[in-house]
Amino acid sequence: MRAQRELGPGNKQKKILSAMVLLSVCLIIIIGRLFFVQIVGSTGKYARQVDQLVEEVPIKASRGDIYDRNNNVLAKDSSASAINVIPFEVENPEKLINTLATRLSLKPEDVKNQITVLENDIVEVKTGISGDKAKTILSHNFPGVTIDDSNLYFEPILITDPDGVAKALAADLETAYEDLYDKATQKEGQPVLIKGKVDNTLAQEIKESEKILDENGEVDSYNGIEILDDYRRYYTNGNFASYILGFTGLDYTGLYGVESTYDDILKGDDGVVYFQKDANGNQIPSQTKILKEPTQGEDIVLTIDSNIQLMAENAVAQAAAQWKTKSVTAIIMDAKTGDILAMTSKPDYNLNDPFTLDAAFLQTHAADLQGKTTEEQLAEMYKNPAVSFIYEPGSTFKALTGSAALEEGVVTPETIVYCSGSIQVGDAVINCATGPHGAETVSDAIAHSCNPGLVQIIEAMDPDVFYQYVYNFGLGARTGIELDGEESGIINRLPTENGSINEVDYATFSFGQGLATTPIQMISALNCVVNNGYYVNPTIISNATKGKETESLKQIISKETSLATREIMRKVVGYDSEMSSLSEGYSIGGKTGTAEKFIDGAYSSSKYVTSFYCFAPIEDPKYSILVVLDEPAVGAYGSTSAAPTAISLMKQALNYSSADAELTDANSQEIQKGAITIPDLLGQQKDFAASILDEKGIRYSFDLGQGGDVVQSQSIPVGSIYDVNTELVLTLGAPASETTGTVIVPDVKGLSIQSANEILSGLGLNLQMVGNGFATSQIPAPSTVVEKGSDITVTFAP
């Protein structure tokens, strides 16, 4: 026998090395497999486990309040409750349906649909499913039935045939049909919103009425009711400063006005509450914890003075009625700072009911709204004319032309121009609407609003220099005011074929034709002329809110030119007997404007925009006011329609601020600084109405009337100045039906049953469900206008 050869040192090392390599490869394979199973492959499993064990419910943060410059509240949140039901915990559905339908003015069938909604999360049915069994189960292709990692799951809301699922799987798994059917039809284990923005007292009364006691007399449950914190937005007077404030949508996000532009500041940070769930996905009340408390939004302080705003709203409403206008807009500005003290347009809309088209708006804008959907019509109504209405300024622009020419030194106030009643410019003849004036000074040409005189003034200037003044006055660009929808206007510089300036267009530019501005642009530019030549940016937000100092001012013309222009504008008022009479005793200067509207490529002979800009006192301007009337009745001019409104407002503002002005109008309304206006409380809950009145310092009492806790009427008219010697009496009654009025049907396609119902019920509409899953179609179609309380049939599918 051959002797066994002994291994040498080299062979031993090779064998050891091979073994180490083999072990390393095995270890890498094991580590890779573990990584895949525990990290890569566990992602979905972990998500399912979290989804099955934890429910996340947002807690809405309260929005910040909006105040005027005197700290009067204009918009605020009130604490309210959201009534939810956990369908899985409902023990007496008939009693619950009756309570909720009766106390919340809801349809019983709608409540029934909500409290019987199926679970929309996965429910674990059985573990340890073998591969063969899994194949058999999945071969049925049942919607809402899945197997993962040998575990069988149901998603009840997606199961279209629970009876068929239970029968088939009972045979496959040798499991009781009843157990499987219960899992396939399991009710939602998390809160389902029934109604939000419910008065806190009413919500607690409803919860207490559903209390179920155990055999020891202890509270066993509240029949599935869950009360969560909620808020509702309230505007102290629905139509007050509507274009400034704007409103919030169904999701509590600001949509228009400062509610939109300052939404990030006002909205705060929502909180989150996590509900721990058991193995069946049902909430464990004792384990509920709040992970993050909501943070209330910051308050906003506006430059608006509520008393001056009230003056403006009343004056504009009167002008709109008198002149049967399409719209009337008024802006009152602090001449030194650019603070907007009042901004209003009529018609407007009710902030507490913003999705209802205003009747006056429908009437005055009928031609513009033809062929538009209700949603498009609402979008038109929300536009703020003060910043979005583009119009030719007409003769108010002459003050800008004159001041630019005076500043450049091409003319003086005493320079002579000549008006024969018309002037030839190229192939065009430009007429004078107020002449002929013969020889007149530049000062008188502007005061008389003489077009030929203005043409001669502008022709004395280099066009490039003149247009630079136009841009420096802020025309052709947005002012940057903190409101949505601002337009930039139009400044055309149309050249001839050889590239030179178009002399006719340039000539007509001198008297405000061939360009387009917005009211906010025009008042800012004219204010610059009278404010010693300094341009101040218009603002609606106080420096306290912005947290910064006023930006450095830009001087466009000299103090001397401003003084000369102010004296010219004094003549405008003094030369007109009616305006002079209206402003008697007050130091008021101004400039009128009457411009034909440019429609479909031509100037209209019947539709005009009239306007009047005024400032006071002339010696040291405190206020600038612009009033613009869109399409007033035939026969209206700036001096007869816009001027009386603006001058009346100026007198009230001067009186209110105790400026050095001698009052001669014994009938002028005296509103004391710091005066309190009566808010609109109709339809508000008793407790909330009381909180508003307490904050304003208004004495009040309640008349119980026919019973109930909703304000039905108030003894002092909305918007009136509060007399501290009087008491406001609020008559209470039962809440009005939420099925009155009209509403636009929203698009709910793609939403779950709960989400669709939240949106529809929030609008006062009733969800009629067909099927389960997610919305695929609806009747009526989106954007249809229907009566509140209407049924909206929505088809749902997996």
Automatic annotation (TrEMBL):
PASTA domain mapped to chain residues: 672-734, 739-798
Gene Ontology BP, a term: cell wall organization
PROSITE patterns: PASTA
One GO MF term: penicillin binding
TM region(s), chain numbering: 16-36
Swiss-Prot/TrEMBL keywords: Membrane, Transmembrane, Transmembrane helix
Record's protein name: Stage V sporulation protein E
Family: Belongs to the transpeptidase family.
One Pfam short name: PASTA
GO cellular component: plasma membrane
Lineage, top ranks: Bacteria, Bacillati, Bacillota, Clostridia, Eubacteriales
Subcellular location(s) per record: Membrane
Species in which this protein is naturally found: Acetobacterium bakii
